[in-house]
Design goal:
Blueprint lengths: L16 H10 L6 E2 L11 H12 L10 H15 L8 E4 L2 H12 L5 E4 L5 H9 L3 E4 L3 E3 L2 E3 L2 H8 L2 E7 L11 H13 L3 E5 L23 E4 L2 H4 L7 E4 L3 H13 L6 H12 L1 H28 L4 E3 L6 E5 L7 H12 L1 E2 L1 E2 L10 E5 L4 H22 L5
Parallel strand pairs: 1-13, 3-4, 3-7, 7-8, 8-9
Antiparallel strand pairs: 2-10, 5-6, 9-10, 11-12, 12-15, 14-15
Length: about 400
């Protein structure tokens, strides 16, 4: 099979958020390289494209229920890939992971209730909690021997005041795949303090071959899981996500909130979920992609450590996101953003929205062809080098 990640795919002019959004939203010129929003520059698995083409050919696009075949596909996928068994009827459609998390928090908590997060974490975790007027309780991750770990003392302190915990697993942006022992301790603390665990596992199927994702639902059948094939198969624009909620009472309350917000799938969402999770060709495609992503991650981290050792980056264990500490350059977030966009000519995701501990960080999406990655790295190396020659420092 040909390389998936290193194919040439021109996404400009397709109304791509990642590519065309730079000009439309930020008024940047086309020579700025987009390494930000979390989708990758590849065509989805051919098996999914074929299924969508066949569905489109029917000419029938009316209001659509969540397919029972899609529910079974999700259940069978989790059983086969993650050793978790649950009733297909416990799978609810969601028009995105963030809407799913939002509807769960709205359904299972009240205004003023505490919701725990672990920063630095995906910005919508912060936004949905505060937007729903819940109390945001942060138990920040800590750096231990060059990688991030959970601070269980901080987590327990937060859980004492909380009703619900939003777990990011694998974690965006730091790239950790949590070990079973870590997740077991999370469950222990949640049970002790009567806290509902809601796990965002959208990056689970992009766990690298050298790692092992543990679905927290395998350890506790009262956990709610929100996920989608969107990151793994690069179909985020289809808004084909789902919620797995084994608890009948919780599920009823979530459905009530979803009905209030008129949550229904498109016909193409059903089709994509079924094709992604049942066609063996799609699964083989995914296995190849995760292997290529791990190789690409090692390459990019190696380039940073060899050519820019003063920029600390953390080797991810899943997905295509690299968390990079720019503190050595001595730039405040706004100045760093301006330098990256105007001088380096690359666009990254700034770290501050991920939490206060992300102020000196940027998130880089390396899910693209190698030539583009090399160009971005060369631009960064060159700009730092020019500054060093001019000033005698790496950056001032």
């Amino acid at each position: 099979m040909k390389s998936i990640l290193h194919q040439t795919l021109d996404r400009t002019g397709t109304d791509s958020v990642k590519w065309d959004g730079l000009e439309r939203w930020f008024h940047l010129k086309s020579d700025v390289l987009p390494l930000w929003v979390a989708d990758i520059d590849v065509r989805t698995a051919p098996a999914i494209s074929e299924a969508l083409t066949a569905r489109a050919a029917t000419g029938e696009y009316g209001y659509t229920l969540f397919s029972r075949d899609a529910q079974r596909a999700v259940s069978d996928w989790y059983s086969r890939r993650h050793d978790v068994k649950f009733d297909p009827n416990h799978v609810l459609f969601s028009s995105g992971v963030v809407p799913g998390l939002t509807h769960i928090v709205e359904a299972l908590t009240e205004e003023g209730d505490g919701v725990v997060i672990q920063s630095p974490v995906y910005p919508p975790f912060h936004e949905l909690v505060t937007g729903l007027k819940r109390e945001l309780l942060d138990a920040p991750l800590i750096q231990v021997n060059g990688r991030y770990e959970m601070d269980f003392d901080a987590l327990e302190a937060a859980m004492r005041q909380a009703k619900l915990f939003l777990l990011c697993s694998p974690h965006n942006p730091v790239g950790r795949v949590w070990m079973e022992s870590e997740l077991a301790r999370v469950i222990e603390l949640a049970r002790r303090h009567d806290v509902i665990i809601v796990a965002d596992e959208i990056h689970a199927d992009l766990t690298y071959p050298s790692q092992h994702h543990v679905a927290i639902g395998r350890l506790d059948d009262r956990v709610i899981t929100v996920s989608a094939p969107s990151k793994a198969f690069n179909i985020a624009g289809l808004f084909a996500s789902y919620i797995v909620c084994p608890d009948d009472a919780w599920r009823k309350r979530i459905i009530q909130v979803q009905n209030k917000h008129h949550v229904l799938p498109t016909p193409f969402a059903n089709t994509a979920i079924i094709a992604a999770y049942t066609d063996p060709r799609a699964e083989r495609w995914l296995d190849q992609l995760t292997a290529e992503l791990e190789e690409q991650a090692a390459y990019v981290v190696g380039r940073f450590r060899e050519s820019m050792p003063y920029l600390t980056c953390f080797m991810p264990e899943a997905s295509y996101l690299l968390w990079i500490d720019f503190e050595a350059l001595g730039l405040e977030p706004d100045a760093r953003k301006k330098w990256l966009q105007e001088d380096v000519r690359i666009f990254l995701s700034p770290g501050t929205p991920f939490g206060e501990s992300g102020r000196s960080f940027e998130r880089l999406n390396f899910g693209t062809r190698r030539t583009l990655i090399d160009e971005a790295l060369e631009r960064l190396i060159r700009q730092v080098g020019e500054n060093e020659q001019r000033t005698g420092n790496a950056f001032v």
